[in-house]
Amino acid sequence: MYKESQIIPSPTAATRVSSMEDQPMIIDPSKHQVPRVEPKIAVDFVSEIDVEKSSDTEYRGKLPLRKPIATRHGAYGGALCSQAILVAMRSVPSGFRPHSIHSYFTKGVHEESVIEWKVQKISDGKTYANRIVLGCQENEVVYTASISLTTRNVTKPRDDGLVPFSYQNDAPRELLHYDISKLKGIANPNLHITLRETPKSKVDDVYPYLIKFGIPECETVLPVPEEYKYSLFTWITDWMFLSRAFASGIGKRVKAQFDVSLDHTIYFHDDDLDATKWVGVSMRPGRSEHGRTLMTCDLYNEKGKHVATVVQERLFIVKPTAHL
Description:
By secondary structure, the chain is mostly beta strands. It has one domain (about 20-150, about 170-320): Porin (Beta Barrel), CATH 2.40.160. The protein has five helices and 18 strands. The strands form two sheets. The chain has a 15-stranded antiparallel sheet that branches. A hairpin with a 2-residue loop joins strand 4 and strand 5 (about 60). It is globular, with a radius of gyration of 20 Å. Keywords: Hydrolase. One of its GO terms (molecular function) is fatty acyl-CoA hydrolase activity.
């Protein structure tokens, strides 16, 4: 299925496509469904997402952004957010890290050409900087993002010895105490993302799961430089299953006729994040009406630290099933 010398991504669309892209990889240890590929594929995230600078306010992707699966219309939204984060970080002084991104997917993005990025510098302060980033394809704006960056994503000891105030909700127990070898889930070889489902949450309306970049059964992720850490973490935040959240957390089994992200917001609370390790997600669907569903995801690192929050509204159109 894979050649020993294969490294993902490859520079041409033809060599990107494998026979696994049209359906997810099923991982179910209880049924001995844990596919393994030897030797493992080397995944180079940097070459996947990297950009080149044209001017102080213009950047260009080096490769087209890929789709979630080969048959899906439009590039993966998480890839757009990920590259926008990288562009914003390239446009500010060193030491600044993103603490929030508010973005909108305005048009479909195809896989035939790269994204051209335009940056508007809103402010440059000592502690905070703000950028508006526009993603363009064939002279049309396909994605917009407002990104705020800060030098305060790491808690540093105070000179006076006092402890700064901090607070977070406890991580759900299911996301802290688990045996990953016993959890079932799915993986997406085209996006290099693995998802494992934990036991059902004891908290109503919550769908807990674990996610990471790289598929341990068949991929080896090449070292990712510090500069790309936030971009890589952003990559995994848009691959989620709202139908599973309704079924697991609320007990409503629905099948969407149409399901696509309208927007994507991330709050980065801390610098201690690593998408190549298991990230715990506590997902909660909120209001669903008019074909749109709002959901919130709290993301925890392996230590149980709440490192990010994702808020997203999806165009989630479900066929009516009940009569008045």
